């Protein structure tokens, strides 16, 4: 499975390394349980220690590669169910009950991914060099708290994460695919777009309309976390507080499935925030869900070779730019990996 | 691997008939462009929706009730 991470195509379709990726909602990893998920080309085990801190590790016993997720949660460590090998949250072998004192004991033998929890989700750092320090996890302002409030909507879709990135960087589909929705019913159905560079990426925006429909998207890569930010106006029925902002992160499950994290955010405080939260729970979440289902139906039905035969026009320049950026990074990482591997082999 | 799709992620219980009526009234009031606190409270008092004790809405009782209804559930 991880072999494809050596190649440019593999890194592109599973996600480039040296990034934080959102893995799953925090509530999906319950105390005392061992949770197995696949993300970004890695087979992962997630668990919380007795103090609640989440650990993300390779789901592979360093002894004989048995699935640790079939093992036993022991509070501050886990035990493989095959031969009882015990591992701590840092990936160090704490005990080998069948052969006490053997060389495996005390060794950091299990790949452990630096993990953080933020805004209701678990994030992990996928380093190209597994021993290197991660970049800081810097999240976009709308999910940083303060004057903002947010709800996380988590989904798993049966298509490549790259199609979701395409969808997010394509504001124009709002006026067509979502024309009957509660939020995107108005505005012009033709537009001229421009790209504006930022310190962390770029904004793709309509030149002649803002605040009416889905009118702009921003690609944000802080050097640690890749995300898309966009605004969608609310109708008056949503109450005071202006448009809502979506912060989106997508993470490959494998080459043809992905996990999507859509934080729906609004800059509201006091009773206005409480009112939005109440309406979100009772009315808006269902309507947002219908919109997202329209995107899912479209994305999941796309042909596997969609990118092979396209005829793009001016509205697609953000996709072209982003695909080129992601491929260039994948290519650079694959080349860097190829350079390192002979050196490693020689060192052995 | 089966994929996870949960339409409702912001609450962990069904809505009540009171919440349904309250949401309908609020949306209708907001839809008329009334977005200020005194205006919302006055408009609510013209509707049939009342707090549990049946009293008239005040700004204080409305903000308290909407904080309860909008509380984070996770």
UniProtKB/TrEMBL annotation, chain A:
<feature type="domain" description="Rieske">
    <location>
        <begin position="21"/>
        <end position="124"/>
    </location>
</feature>
<dbReference type="GO" id="GO:0046872">
    <property type="term" value="F:metal ion binding"/>
</dbReference>
<dbReference type="GO" id="GO:0016705">
    <property type="term" value="F:oxidoreductase activity, acting on paired donors, with incorporation or reduction of molecular oxygen"/>
</dbReference>
<dbReference type="InterPro" id="IPR017941">
    <property type="entry name" value="Rieske_2Fe-2S"/>
</dbReference>
<keyword id="KW-0223">Dioxygenase</keyword>
<protein>
    <submittedName>
        <fullName>Phenylpropionate dioxygenase, large terminal subunit</fullName>
    </submittedName>
</protein>
<dbReference type="Pfam" id="PF19112">
    <property type="entry name" value="VanA_C"/>
</dbReference>
<dbReference type="InterPro" id="IPR036922">
    <property type="entry name" value="Rieske_2Fe-2S_sf"/>
</dbReference>
<keyword id="KW-0001">2Fe-2S</keyword>
<dbReference type="GO" id="GO:0004497">
    <property type="term" value="F:monooxygenase activity"/>
</dbReference>
<keyword id="KW-0408">Iron</keyword>
<dbReference type="InterPro" id="IPR050584">
    <property type="entry name" value="Cholesterol_7-desaturase"/>
</dbReference>
<keyword id="KW-0479">Metal-binding</keyword>
<dbReference type="Pfam" id="PF00355">
    <property type="entry name" value="Rieske"/>
</dbReference>
<keyword id="KW-0560">Oxidoreductase</keyword>
<dbReference type="GO" id="GO:0051537">
    <property type="term" value="F:2 iron, 2 sulfur cluster binding"/>
</dbReference>
<dbReference type="InterPro" id="IPR044043">
    <property type="entry name" value="VanA_C_cat"/>
</dbReference>
<dbReference type="GO" id="GO:0051213">
    <property type="term" value="F:dioxygenase activity"/>
</dbReference>
<keyword id="KW-0411">Iron-sulfur</keyword>
Automatic annotation (TrEMBL), chain B:
<feature type="domain" description="Recombinase-like">
    <location>
        <begin position="3"/>
        <end position="71"/>
    </location>
</feature>
<dbReference type="Pfam" id="PF20552">
    <property type="entry name" value="HTH_62"/>
</dbReference>
<protein>
    <recommendedName>
        <fullName>Recombinase-like domain-containing protein</fullName>
    </recommendedName>
</protein>
<dbReference type="InterPro" id="IPR046789">
    <property type="entry name" value="HTH_62"/>
</dbReference>
